[in-house]
Design goal:
Layout lengths: L9 H12 L3 H16 L2 H8 L6 H5 E5 L2 H7 L8 E5 L2 E2 L2 E2 L1 H9 L4 E8 L12 E8 L8 H7 L4 H19 L4
Antiparallel strand pairs: 1-2, 3-4, 5-6
Helix pairs in contact: 2-8, 3-7
């Protein structure tokens, strides 16, 4: 998963840790998620503006999503850490677009493809021995990166956006009376 290396000075880190120690665990997680959401906010529109559009499905599927417990387990991220996933996060017309996003971002090498096709169509469970085997030459797809350039363009203001999101969340919680 793509991410940023955030570096803080020791005084900034100590100040953030002191403020976060005052919060309860759930509030701390929500504060970190708010900061990460603020970091990701300008990246998604940039990705959408630079993606190659054929049908528009890939562009519709781009977004950001907070990593759930299941996804953290899948990616090997400890449960207590927070994360935001940027990319093809929505299904469009019932189909996930993450595979297409990978093909567009990284491209496909040209070469031969071997295919075993069931003549009954998509009902591949019914095995009656009627298969067609054929191969074809694929010209490949040139990479048209749209995610990595968007991340690189917005990498400079990560810490300021994170602290802005964190501060906005804290101000909102203070107004509600959740923290003093």
């Amino acid at each position: 998963m793509n991410g940023f290396d955030v570096s803080l000075s020791p005084t900034q880190l100590e100040a953030v840790q002191e403020e976060l120690k005052l919060l309860e665990e759930g509030l701390k997680n929500r504060a970190l998620r708010a900061g990460l959401q603020e970091v990701a906010k300008p990246i998604v529109p940039d990705m959408k503006s630079n993606v190659a559009v054929l049908t528009g499905d890939l562009k519709q599927s781009l977004g950001r999503r907070v990593l759930s417990k299941r996804l953290k387990n899948l990616y090997g991220i400890p449960a207590q850490q927070q994360g935001v996933f940027l990319g093809a996060v929505r299904k469009v017309n019932g189909y996930s677009q993450d595979y297409i996003a990978r093909l567009v971002e990284h491209g496909v090498e040209p070469g031969y493809r071997n295919v075993k096709r069931n003549l009954k169509g998509h009902r591949a469970r019914r095995q009656d021995g009627r298969y067609v085997f054929y191969s074809y030459e694929s010209p490949g797809i040139k990479p048209q990166p749209f995610m990595k350039p968007a991340l690189n363009r917005h990498a400079s203001g990560v810490t300021t956006r994170f602290y802005k999101g964190l501060g906005d969340f804290m101000d909102k919680q203070r107004k509600r009376g959740a923290i003093t």
